Amino acid sequence: MSKIIFKEHSQQYRKACERARKSFICLRSIAHAVDPTIGEKVEVSTIVPIIKAGAVVTLPRANVDYVVTEFGIANLRGTNIKERVEALIGIAHPKFRQELLEEAKKLQYI
Length: 110
Fold this sequence. Notes:
Oligomer: single chain
Number of helices: 3
CATH topology: Glutaconate Coenzyme A-transferase
Low-confidence stretches: 1-7
Number of strands: 5
Largest sheet: 3 strands, mixed
CATH architecture: 3-Layer(aba) Sandwich
Distance between the termini: 48 Å
Shape: globular
CATH class: Alpha Beta
Number of domains: 1
């Protein structure tokens, strides 16, 4: 039963987004990964300054209008790199924001 409800909701949501002609990426601000150095699960930010070599990107940045986490919504439509970086740091988990800001400065994004 819940699969059917989810499928119907998903289809309705997709149709609404198509009508609005807006793209949304919705994600949690934190993921859990195994740290290879200690072999234990650690929390990592899902918002990162650079993607790893070999990572697959399926959506060009120009096609992303909004990124949503539990900490807010970043409106990225028509923004430059500096504005995008600041908006994404603003919706990252608070415990990772300072680290992301420092890395963005080091990479000369801001």
